[in-house]
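USER:
Make up one protein:

ASSISTANT:
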Amino acid sequence: MKRRNHLYRSFGLLLIGGLLAYGLSELLVALGPIAGYQFKEFNPLSDLLDTTANQSYETLSIPLRTANDTTATELHSADSTNSKGVTTDTLTPLELSSRLMDYSEGQSALRRLRAALREGRSRSVRIAFVGDSFIEGDILVAPFRQALQQRYGGKGVGYVPLTSTVARFRQSIQQRFEGAWRQTLASKSNSRTLFTLSETFATATASASTSYKLTNADRVTLHYVSDTIPVAITYGINGGERQHVELPASHGALAEYTFPHGAVKQFELATGGGDGTRFYGVCFDGMTGISVDNYSLRGSSGTKLTAVSSALTSQLSRFRPYDLIILSYGLNVLSPKDNNDSYEWYYDAMAKSIEHIQQLYPHATILLMSLSDRATLHEGEIHPLNGVARVLRIQHRLAQRYGLLFWNTHEAMASLGGIKGFVDKGWAAKDYTHISMAGGTQLAKLLTADLIGDESK
């Protein structure tokens, strides 16, 4: 009898544990996107099920407006004119392709951008690619950068952090770091005075070093913030003798230090640490031409861009004034469960981020990339996430409201077979969310062609 009771008790405990795990999984899946995280649904039987994807999945174009869409009239009276003076309730976009739209005043944003690109032979033209894990490891960004540099000139990969969780698979530059580095992220901080567009910086609590190998660059710079004491570092270029230098005290402002050299293919930096200096990144550039900085932050939804410091941005803009800022977000907003979320909370939060970026960079052209195609695999069948259409339309409304360029990433993927086609061709991971370098190259071709326009013919 006691043995049977033990069996019942064990079975009961297992059942209760399973139910608790499932309940916690459902809660995290539902609330994760709001906090900027993505959790996978708990399924204890997943290993017993056939995970062969069905062949009936098809990605279709998503209309940016529905039959009952109130985009033109839903803006409140206070929103009828945006921060750049564009009347949004009557604005007609310049549709430059099935993917690219110009909602700027007089549809002038793309003309300004193309004019700036043509100046690449005589000056530095700077582009910031700001987004989530969709572009981490320089996926999409590297082929985009390469295409523009081949046409308009330029060298290097632009901004690279001192430490990176994706350094091991980034192909455009090799990076190794060791020692007592500590990374601080905007997503885990309430500060509005510590962050630039990268939303991260590194400090060294003791000795720490980092090294880079790349194809070519003509100029290496370091961005940092220190107090009233000079910062001692050691650096080496192209395997040469180590040099000792004291970075000038920046007195709390963001400073730039340029390392003296010509062509650079290797760079090493070491610090004794412990002085509280904040290292914001190393930049590898040409003397002129196109420079593209990849500011990707895993798990970000874009809503924390309001934490970007006005003071630091003003100081950084003296060194890196951006002609174009590309915002690429949306994947971390979606919930794998169709909970009929309208995502209006995301519209409100992202509106604040866009307003903040426009205030920080009043002279930059801003392009909003929509989220891509995304699906989920359930019991061997691929199911598109219904929330994709809702978030896509919200991003379109944001571009319309704030007079931005808008590029429909979902439409671009649909023209190439959608997320299933990408996975089948090895262009995307089998999470049916993240693209590979090969997939990024395909999207970069379309994005570059749309931005360059007739010049590419």
Notes: The CA atoms of residues 144 and 447 lie 8 Å apart. The first strand starts at residue 94 and ends at 95. The radius of gyration is 24 Å. The chain has two domains: 95-154+288-456, 159-287.
